[in-house]
Amino acid sequence: MSIETTIGLRYTASRKSGGGNRFISFISLISMLGLALGVAALIVVLSVMNGFQKELRTRILGVASHAQISGAEGDLDRWQVAVDLVAKHPRVLAAAPYVQQQGMLSLDGQVKGVLVRGIVPAEEERVADFAQHMKAGALADLRPGEFDIILGAELAYALHARVGEKVTLIAPQGMVTPAAVLPRMKQFTVVGIFEVGMFEYDAGLALLHMADAQRLYQMEYRVSGVRLKLDDLFAAPAVVRELAGQIGADMRVSDWTRSHANFFRAVAIEKNMMFLILLLIVAVAAFNIVSTLVMTVTDKRADIAILRTLGASPGSIMRIFIVQGTLIGVIGLALGVAGGVALALNVDVVVPFLERVLGIQFLAKDVYYISDLPSDLHWADVGIITVTSFVLTLLATLYPSWRAARVNPAEALRYE
User: Which residue from 91, 61, 74, 65 is spatially nearest to 246, judged by alpha carbons?
Assistant: First the structure.
């Protein structure tokens, strides 16, 4: 161990009884704890934001699709060809045709605009997670020719509809009569209710059997598109590019990163801004290290002068205080990383405990659709936080160390 490291460690661990030394030791402890708190908060907050992003993505893609093929000019005529084509791709797990149209639902004077989706239940269960979110009934209850319907929970609540009741679906396509053009209307029996936790779907989506939707909207054998499920949702852009070169000119293919681009981009921007804001806490802790070292340099002027008279170079003096500041930072950083990782991995235990102790609920179920605080720890985030915090700590040691190296031995020893 070099002489600079030895002296730097002794200054950090000083236990002298003098008031100045005690105060400097106290400020050093505060600097360590401040850095630890900032790093831990940064890790926990980013993990929770990752958890929310993952939860939202799971809920959205449980109803939407990883990728979809649609007609270039509207409806898709050769959808069987599209299904056979994409089924050969090694990353496509399942494909399901669907019909998607606008409509209005009416029951006892209550009217709501809805997005109508016609599905084949057996195929839909392979590309979506509706089966996991059914509050009543099942997708298999949709039978062709029976004109059954499954509603989102919020939509059913708004219409006061229960399983077994009949609702009227009004399609915008009109029927030409001698008197006027009348909208097409058909009664459907509610056979199920789902709740995925996304208001957009729970309040505005209704499921029919695809054959009934084709008949109501006069689509004959055509469909709106084909929904795809991939083995890795993050590979969707690459798979879409590959499929785009294989399908015909009358088809187009897109993925979830395009259909929900604005939403996920907003979440990513929010995460980045939160990282920068919370990084200020670490910066404040680094400024505390600066003040600690400045006071240490002032207190140790006589020691510095003696070392200089014994032959220590200005570089050696700088390294002494760099070692001291770095040690403060490393200890605080280690405590912060350990505490932050432990808390991020146990949010599901800590938050319910705090709710019981304080008698409050942070995410009330009647207000928020995600009532549990999710956490998804990314070790890459931990690495970035650790490196960034260490660099800030190292930079904080430079000015006090440079100031210590400029101490004039004669001036420092004049009044000793």
Answer: 91
φ/ψ bin of 147: left (φ > 0), alpha (ψ from -120 to 50), beta (otherwise): left
59-88 pLDDT, tens per residue? 777 777 888 888 877 788 888 888 888 888
In 3D space, the residue among 184, 188, 176 whose CA is nearest the CA of residue 212 turns out to be 188
Distance in angstroms (rounded) separating the CA atoms of residues 148 and 137: 11
Domain boundaries, the chain: 3-58+263-413, 65-259
The 10s digit of each residue's pLDDT in 308-343 is 777 777 788 888 888 888 888 888 889 999 999 999
CB environment 146-185: b (16+ within 10 A), e (fewer) = ebbbbbbbbbbebbebebeeebebbbeeeeeeeeeeeeee
Fill in the amino acid letter for 128.
A
336 with 389: CB under 8 angstroms?
yes
- Is the CB of residue 188 less than 8 Å from the CB of residue 169? yes
Beta bridge partners of 352: none
148-152 and 166-176 beta bridge pairing: unpaired
- Can you list the pairs that 234-241 forms with residues at least 24 positions away whose Cβ atoms lie under 8 Å? 235/91, 236/66, 236/67, 239/67, 239/89, 239/91, 239/92, 240/67
DSSP conformation letters of 278-328: HHHHHHHHHHHHHHHHHHHHHHTHHHHHHHHHTT--HHHHHHHHHHHHHHH
Q: What is the pTM of this model?
A: 0.68
